[in-house]
From TrEMBL:
Natural source organism: Streptomyces cellulosae
Protein name: 3-hydroxyacyl-CoA dehydrogenase family protein
Pfam families per record: 3HCDH, 3HCDH_N
Domain of life: Bacteria
Domain 3-hydroxyacyl-CoA dehydrogenase NAD binding span(s) in chain numbering: 20-202
InterPro entries (UniProt xref): 3-OHacyl-CoA_DH, 3-OHacyl-CoA_DH_NAD-bd, 3HC_DH_C, 6-PGluconate_DH-like_C_sf, 6PGD_dom2, NAD(P)-bd_dom_sf
Length: 315
């Protein structure tokens, strides 16, 4: 109960109308933008792909509609803001300079260290000295990301799960350099969007993806070797283990490109070859069949999934 009170007090300390910046208008960036907008924060989402910016508003609209339905049709979001207002709080831009006034930036660009390095170096130049940089990285050590900035004490990992608006918890990665104040303020931001932090130490893949990425890769290998078809692989996990979703549908929801990138990051940072993407996963990514967001992966998807990208995955 003491912890709960602490989190509520910290949440109250976070300025209500302060600007939140999101880098990357993809699956996660759009979902995280929804979380903050539904809590009443103005949000600017920046992406360097005009296609992602163009499709962002429709995907945000679909995300808000799905979340509203799953919350029982209430016109209020979980965190309190009317659903219609949330959409109007989000702006879309190609310029990182538009987030100069942000108190918090959540970096949700693709899982590529060079990309994240370029973004963090530029943000460090653009944003005010107090701004916190939170990365949604799946696997890259947060200490490494902090080293790209002159403010490693204000860099932290906030690993939102997919779909972000529907999950109650965020894996928060504290690097050795991350300050107590940064952790406390980050917990405050998360409390404001109705989520609690599960704080873990910094390591490649943290807790979630050190385990999950190997599982997804092995499920793909089992399918590729012909041990079972995709439906049967997934049903083994659902019917025998009680998982809400099997590993191959989860992989399609996350994005097979994101999984292959994450495995390569894990392989590079651990030096362990067991993280090498299996042949089937590598082939599907090379063919552009990266899961729901492309219309096919281990399964085929109807067009409405491309807008909604909903489900009960993780990431
Ligand atoms: N998909 C998941 O289930 C999931 C879950 C948790 C964490 N993550 C992590 O979240 C991050 C984003 O993943 P995603 O699934 O949203 O990927 P995505 O491919 O859907 O979106 C990534 C976006 O980043 C943009 N981008 C690339 N370079 C950029 C740059 N220099 N400036 C601005 N935008 C840039 C791309 O145009 C794209 O729109 C990754 O680090 C990923 O590992 C993903």
């Amino acid at each position: 109960m003491g912890d709960q009170t602490d989190v509520q007090q910290t949440a109250r300390a976070v300025p209500a109308g302060s600007l939140v910046g999101i880098v990357g208008a993809g699956t996660m960036g759009t979902g995280v933008a929804q979380c903050f907008a539904e809590a009443g924060h103005p949000v600017v989402v920046v992406d360097n792909d005009p296609g992602a910016l163009a499709s962002g508003p429709a995907r945000l609209h679909a995300g808000i509609r799905t979340a509203t339905l799953l919350r029982g049709g209430s016109r209020q979001s979980r965190a309190g803001a009317p659903a219609s207002r949330a959409e109007s709080l989000v702006t879309w831009s190609a310029e990182l300079a538009d987030m100069a006034a942000a108190v918090l930036v959540v970096e949700c660009a693709r899982e590529d260290e060079d990309t994240k390095e370029r973004i963090l170096r530029e943000l460090d130049r653009i944003c005010g000295p107090e701004a916190i940089f939170a990365s949604n990285t799946s696997c890259i050590p947060v200490s490494r990301l902090g080293s790209f900035t002159g403010r490693p004490d204000r860099v932290i990992g906030t690993h939102f799960m997919n779909p972000a608006p529907l999950k109650d918890a965020v894996e928060v990665i504290r690097a050795p350099e991350t300050s107590d104040l940064t952790l406390e303020r980050t917990e405050g931001f998360l409390a404001r969007v109705g989520k609690h932090a599960l704080v873990v130490r910094d390591a490649p893949g943290f807790v979630t993806n050190r385990v999950l990425m190997l599982t997804l890769n092995e499920a793909a290998a089992v399918l590729g070797e012909g041990t079972a078809d995709a439906e049967t692989v997934d049903r083994v996990f659902q019917d025998c283990f009680g998982h809400p979703m099997g590993p191959l549908r989860t992989a399609d929801l996350i994005g097979l490109d994101t999984i292959a990138d994450s495995l390569e990051v894990l392989r590079r940072h651990t030096g362990e070859d067991r993280f090498r993407p299996c042949p089937l996963l590598a082939r599907l990514v090379a063919e552009g069949k990266v899961g729901r967001k492309s219309g096919s992966g281990f399964y085929q998807y109807a067009p409405q999934h491309l807008a909604a990208r909903g489900g009960t995955g993780h990431g």
